[in-house]
């Protein structure tokens, strides 16, 4: 499985961005599909995603501002990010866990200016 993230960029505080993660290859028993991020000087953290049973989970810091969605027909995961703040600045990574192991995509940089 290969994951290709896109949609990052530079935006002013209060703005919006939409990230996409396109998956390719054979996906065997998708168990988790999620967005993570790593801010400068910080550990990687979960942002939002789909977990067992299709349950969505969000980091407290993004609840009410970010929305994760997916289109299985085109094997793409999305992250709609609204009301962006400087603390959302990070490299965002797409992650998928399948029956054959975890996969990570190359990150996409999101920079929010104040």
* Low-confidence runs of at least 5 consecutive residues: none
The chain-level mean pLDDT equals 95
User: In percent, how much strand structure appears in the residues?
Assistant: over 45%
Please identify the structural class as seen in this structure.
Answer: mainly beta
* Residues in helix, %: under 10%
Number of DSSP strand runs: 11
- Please tell me what the overall shape is: globular
Rg over CA atoms: 13 Å
Discrete helix count: 0
Largest sheet composition: 7 strands, mixed
Compressed to H and E, one letter per element, the order equals: EEEEEEEEEEE
Alpha carbon gap, first and last residue: 37 Å
Description:
This protein is an all-beta fold and 114 residues long. Helix content is 0%, strand content 56%. It contains no helices and eleven strands. Strands 2, 4, 5, 6, 9, 10 and 11 form a seven-stranded mixed beta sheet that branches. It is globular, with a radius of gyration of 13 Å. The mean pLDDT is 95.
Which keywords apply here?
114 residues, mainly beta, 7-stranded mixed sheet, 4-stranded antiparallel sheet, 11 strands, globular
Blueprint of the fold:
Layout: E1 2-6, E2 9-12, E3 17-24, E4 32-38, E5 45-50, E6 56-58, E7 66-71, E8 76-81, E9 90-98, E10 101-104, E11 108-113
Parallel strand pairs: 2-11
Antiparallel strand pairs: 1-3, 3-8, 4-5, 4-9, 5-6, 7-8, 9-10, 9-11
